[in-house]
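quick q for whoever's on today - can somebody do inverse folding on this one?? i tried earlier but teh output was garbage lol. tokens:
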């Protein structure tokens, strides 16, 4: 493992979530890489969403809670440029081995990653 990989693993912290013998490779990746990265990047991800709302002149505060939840989901699922920026914030903290794993299963891991990000933002809607 190179210095960057060692640094990233230490910087991100421990695995989050349980790992069992029955865990799939996607679950392992989620708990060993995605969860720690999302936790580490939480503040910048929230700030990015706030900036997205501002740049698109969206009065998020005037929305009902249901509309806020739908807005979070739609903005990440339908705005490809925004979604790619968010993915970059996460992928940039992968180790070399994690990136190699990611590119083999990018489609399923992207769905998992964006789903987790959407839920994280929804759970913090009061900050938005």
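ok took a stab at it. sequence:
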């Amino acid at each position: 493992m190179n210095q960057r990989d060692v640094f990233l693993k230490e910087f991100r912290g421990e695995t989050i979530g349980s790992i069992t013998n029955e865990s799939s490779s996607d679950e392992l990746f989620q708990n060993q890489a995605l969860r720690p990265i999302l936790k580490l990047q939480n503040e910048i991800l929230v700030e990015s969403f706030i900036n997205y709302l501002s740049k698109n002149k969206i009065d998020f505060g005037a929305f009902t809670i249901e509309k806020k939840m739908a807005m979070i989901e739609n903005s990440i699922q339908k705005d490809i440029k925004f979604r790619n920026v968010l993915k970059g914030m996460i992928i940039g903290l992968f180790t070399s081995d994690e990136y190699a794993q990611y590119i083999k299963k990018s489609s399923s891991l992207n769905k998992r990653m964006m789903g987790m990000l959407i839920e994280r933002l929804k759970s913090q809607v009061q900050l938005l």
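fwiw The longest helix spans residues 106-123. also The chain has a mean pLDDT of 93. so keep that in mind when u check it
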